[in-house]
Amino acid sequence: MDGMRLTRRVARKAPVPAFTPGLPVTVPLWLALHLRIQDKCKIVPPEWMNVESLRLVLQKEKDDAGQFEELPFHYVEIAEQLLSV
To answer: DSSP of 12-40, one letter per residue?
Structure first.
């Protein structure tokens, strides 16, 4: 079974927008990772993974040691998955 048919079969299990080459589209993380492993897409990291955003979070947490800044639920796992592909 070739990769494109597998991708179509996997994509049927979740609502996925139409893909147009060169245009960004938002998809579930599992699908983005699946397509990236097949070298069929480029993943754009979420804004909160931007170096400047993370520096700002770190600075705010240093300024107020009793308060954590809000990051997405499971941010460690998401970052780990995105950095591994």
So the answer is: TTS--PPP-TTS-----HHHHHHHHHTT-
Structure tokens at 84: 């591994």
pTM confidence score? 0.70
Report residue 47 CA to chain centroid gap.
10
Q: 58 with 68: CB under 8 angstroms?
A: no
Encode the chain (85 residues) as per-residue pLDDT tens digits: 345 555 555 556 666 777 888 888 888 899 899 999 999 899 999 999 999 999 999 999 999 888 888 889 999 999 999 999 8
Domain ranges of the chain: 1-40, 45-85
Q: Is 35 exposed, middle or buried (0-12, 13-18, 19+ CB in 10 A)?
A: buried
